[in-house]
Fold these 2 entries.
Entry 1:
Amino acid sequence: EVQLVESGGGLVQPGGSLRLSCAASGFTFSSYSMNWVRQAPGKGLEWVSYISSSSSTIYYADSVKGRFTISRDNAKNSLYLQMNSLRDEDTAVYYCARGSYGYFVDYWGQGTLVTVSS
Amino acid sequence: QSVLTQPPSVSGAPGQRVTISCTGSSSNIGAGYDVHWYQQLPGTAPKLLIYGNSNRPSGVPDRFSGSKSGTSASLAITGLQAEDEADYYCQSYDSSLSVHYVFGTGTKVTVL
């Protein structure tokens, strides 16, 4: 069974940093691209970042480019999101999401809440 | 802001058929990129419902179907059930934005 478990969310002040982690199990992690997708309270889904299976290709949404860094450790079956210079508008539930061939998400984690507030 | 537009809400009685539209442009759906659909039940993570315009993952009831034409796509739910009450999102690729995952604005389905 595919499982994606996020951790690392919490309350942080504007301008602060946070590192999210996603532990993957139930599939060959190194064979799949991965994504982070977020959802602000009461709002829709927003794609944040993409990383290919070998980390050779990385993309970011314009809204986080230069502030967020996606990475992965295939030996540890883990995905990460380093978030710096956090803003109020980064407040959201962040989902770890497995990418499938054809550029869609076939499995989602349960999400971790990041709250940016003073 | 999203480049894929969906109606904010649709509703129907149990057993009825409802459809949700997803309107894009020549740089996404109209360019031939596939459309995918996700269901998000209240308080839960999204779940893949339809991929590649019209394909259902294993375990998704055949009451759910997808189609695509021109610059739009649609999700149909036939035989609406109470457990179908959820938010639904379309998703595609947009060449003008150079990002793989562009989500629709989302549609709340209410079962009357």
Note: The first strand of chain B starts at residue 9 and ends at 12.
Entry 2:
Amino acid sequence: LAKTTQPISMDSYEGQEVNITCSHNNIATNDYITWYQQFPSQGPRFIIQGYKTKVTNEVASLFIPADRKSSTLSLPRVSLSDTAVYYCLVGLAGYSTLTFGKGTMLLVSP
Amino acid sequence: GAVVSQHPSWVICKSGTSVKIECRSLDFQATTMFWYRQFPKQSLMLMATSNEGSKATYEQGVEKDKFLINHASLTLSTLTVTSAHPEDSSFYICSARAARGGAGEQYFGPGTRLTVT
């Protein structure tokens, strides 16, 4: 399983765009990149998943460079409710297990 | 879509008793479900992988006789913590994999807070 490295914490203000970068230098050819959000005392929530280039949905964008050794989760115009821990995971398509790293604690202030 | 529920959401039990936690996929069938444990201010740790109709696969260091997992149907998996002790107090989270294209992303339940007194 590819190991991921993320910043331990990030601070932002309401209305700003937040970019969280994850390094996964030994990502395998068939690995997908998935991001989850977790609030205290709740289960993680799926945010976005991608394999290459750019993926966008209603809540976030995921940028993946050509070498796929890193990825960036972009949250446009964050609000206080985006304060949470964000996890980056990589895994083989259909692979049974996900390994959670320490995640990035995002704190959004007024 | 892709909703996973857990019951109960929290439970308090006395040391030495057993507790059962249910995990249900409400709007999809899940051939595989996963059980995680999360201690305060720590990340999720995978305990076991539960496949419908077969024995669960436990991660290294997880006692299979203590944490009994039953995946009896495509929408229900249960985790029973037997002879619970205070050190078993934790946040237990299940997930179910929706195998629809892509990488079969996992959808997580809301978690169950277990406190053993």
Note: The longest strand of chain A covers residues 84-92.
